[in-house]
Amino acid sequence: MDPYGVGYTSQEVDPYHPSGSEKSTSSGSSGSSSYNPNAVVYSSNSESERKLNNIYSLEHDGNVHFTTQEEQEEAWSDLFVRGLKNIEDTDLSREITHWNELFQKILDLEESDERSKKLATIANDFVYCADTFGKIIISELHSPLEQKTIKPVNIGGVAGGLKFKIQDIIFKFVIDTEIREGVWMYGDNKRADGFAQKSANHEIKGLNHFMEISNGGLIRFPLMAIIDYRGYRLLAISQLPIDKTTIVYGSCDAGKTVHNSDPLISQEMERISKILNLRGHTVGLTQTFIYGPGDIEVHKGTDGRYYMIDFARIFPPEYPLVYQNQKDTIGREIFYQMLRPELVAKCDTPLSSDAFSGWQTSLFEEGLNRDVVRATNILHNEMIPTIIHNINMKPETDYSPSRHKVFEIMKILNIFHSMGINNRYIGSLASQITNKSIRELLLSEVVGRVWKRIIRSKLRRIMDITRRPSEEPYKVLIDEVFAMILKQEPEQIEFWSSMEKGSFKHIALQVYPRCLSQSDMNAEYDLRQCIDVKVVILRLRKFLNININESSLNQFLESNDYVLGIQDIVDVGSTVKYSCIVDYSHGSQLLTHTKDILRSSSTPNPLEVDRWISNTGEILNEAIRQMPRSFKVLLKLLQASHVKVSITNDHMKATRILIVGVVMHQMSVSNEMRSHPDIASLIGLIHLQLATIYLFHSDLDREFKEELVDAKKLLEVALEKDPNCLDEYILETLPLFTSQHSVVPVRHESYQKRKVHNLLTLVYMLNSSPSLQKPIQKYLNQIKQIDNFEILPHAESLFDCKQISKFFQNFQNQLESLSIQKLTISSLVRESLAKLSNLRILSVSDISPPSHKPEDTDPSLHLFFSSIFQGCPLISSLSITSNKLVNDHTFEGLHHHFSRLKYLELSKLPLLTDVTLTNIAPHLTNLQSLSLNNSKEYTDTAMTLLLRTISKTLETLHVDHLTLITDQICQVIIDCHPNISDLTLTNCIGFTTNATENIANKLSNLKIYDRVKISTPHTYKIFNLRTLETISIEQFNTTAFE
């Protein structure tokens, strides 16, 4: 029997009885051999059915194309779509069988945008695959071996825990290991997986720093990720072409044999270690001299490359008895509580990675240990007290709303890290800080991290008990936690106030010793009074990847009494940590794309640019969080901040971004790198922009001068070393004209105005900086368009008429477009503007003569326009707006100059009358665009003469708020300008609807037509679903619920 056969007959048969070749020969049981329930046996032979005239009949369809069954089947397969690439033609189609080989080949490429793009792609793909497979491995942890999707493998290694391998990625559970009976690697006398997980964090940190310094050089590194899910942690590493026989440096057998057999690697390890300020020492039973920890491994792979693994103990341990002064002996915390690399780099002497451990077998072991003790004392007795003092000296600041508080927390933590202060001490810092606003931020962060620890342990316990993949138990747990944090019932108040075991304060002191002050530990004091619970929820959401319904989250953040519940929790996902190269490459790629948008368009969309650069900043901030002192990461982040400032209209926001950039530069860039031209030029421009804001938008004259001095020093240093170092940044700072841009319409955005103000500040600085004039001049020569030139009140004392005149002297033979507003036109300014011999576009708004009325006063601005017409013979576009001084006398004797104009705008000129329109009309023979707006003086007579005289090449006409003109003008437009394509007739009370509609009917070339529209109430109708009749809203309201 064919289970999917198709039976069909054209004969009239019982439609439910088999027919044709399947027709039964008897009604007995023998007929069962022909039974086919999946056969199509129904056929319509009824004449009435076949000739039924319905909406799909041919006479209705006409020439409609009928889709064949084959075409319908194709619609469910891989459709050909014109304009979309076939997957086979892209790199995405290539299966990655060896992550490492592809990764190393990309690293071998020259530094370029393409390299960054490829690095970002492979790194993100690796992280995604590691996360996907990691969640499967953890979810199936308690499944029987035969039921596991990904089965464990035996690939050796000293550390315990199951290992898995899939698609060239090796996974290992991060758990504590019993190194001998009764002794655990991290927990000493009991298993402590939490401490083992801390050690895994150090794997990423060590990898980041070695990879940054090596930079694709002699020593190579694997792709690596850490996956946290359901309370468990997996370490994922791309498989390398190494084994126990390929090791050339370090030890893979707990120090029984220590290798240092390759001179090239020995030299490279010494070089890198000196940069990290790590000291060489003898290690292991063989007393071999190496740099770094004894258990580090460098292999010469079977592919000929050198590979490094095991980075957890790159940096020296902290001496524990300084902070834990109640203890008498050093415990196993030396294997997971490390000094931060930023602190190690600041120490006067190099430090041993193996301090206090049995790995050291040097005769100078005590000296090596004392160096680390001194470094620990610097941390606790100098760094931490200094930062506490500095914070307490800061004024109280409201960092609201809660989302912004999270941003401030990340900034503070980055500062701590750049000073070498570990996260484990933020509780101790919070308890000693008296600045209430910052104390609230830090204590909220502490509370969030304590809850993270609690939740992860509970997640793991749920996983071990349920022993199955599930979502609901984890959502229930998060729901209970949210209730404990947010509700104000007696049970929650007691939990947050008590010091008893199991209370929050008791747990917090276990996780973060000394995190509470004496007043905090008052048993009557609800700790939530000094934190922001919304910040805690936001941090938990980030820590644990808790997916909360977006609308619920927004309502929670905007309300003071909304308690998030299980109905608001979508799921509890995994979190992934990975090497800095992932975020750095991705951020670099996005930054390049953002700059391409800025450079490819003369008028980029600020919203689009802001979206791209905001994403770039978020990703690069993640990278800098891992590597606070990374020069290349910091440079990219500062570049992103510079672009962000260049497109924001908010001066306060721009100021904050610029100040953060200066602080990051001071905190994170080493002294020897501060003079690097890339960073010095960028920070110099940041100081210049701060000076501009202080001058034009505040009364901070002293700060303006200080910022200008800093800008001058840095730019002099940078340009002396590299005269082209500003090429990368200048477009975002000045209103620069590039060869691929043409002069564009005036741009009124605030950020465009700020670029003009930056230019004013720069030219002012050049007057006192001869050494900068030559290298900067090439950028000034590219400026051909200046929009929104305005001297704001705060800057008037500095930019007087003399300074403005000197400013325009820099652009005499190059400026093509100029827009000025609210400018006092003195004789000096008038003469300097008249020398702009290449000027083609001029827009003036609200300009005036000097108020003190000197002898050469120009009350009607006649002298100004006379000078402009004579000195600027190329002007073809003129816009005069918002001026109560311009009148008919202004243009006396100048009417013939209007013959050169193609574009003319006269707007908000209350003293200009028909006289001027009548006089200029004969000369407007080349006009293509005309705008006449906001006048009570223009009549039908002058307008008719003007429109009949103007050449029929007029393409654009904008008429707005002309109160005296009538329908006569509409008929003139129809008669004289049949080719007009852009027409605006608005707010002219003399126009009737019939006249304006007649224009729409008669002018066939109109593409844009804006006119008065009479709005009428819209009658909404809906369908009666039973009768398909249309009923009104009123009918619906009365009948819908009957």
Automatic annotation (TrEMBL):
Residues 19-34 have a biased composition (Low complexity). It comes from the Eukaryota. SUPFAM superfamilies: RNI-like. Residues 1-42 are annotated as: Disordered. One of its GO terms (cellular component) is cytoplasm. Residues 72-322 form the Clu domain. It holds the Pfam family DUF7885. GO terms for biological process: intracellular distribution of mitochondria. PROSITE patterns: CLU. One of its GO terms (molecular function) is mRNA binding. PANTHER family: CLU DOMAIN-CONTAINING PROTEIN, EUKARYOTIC TRANSLATION INITIATION FACTOR 3 SUBUNIT EIF-3. This is Clu domain-containing protein.
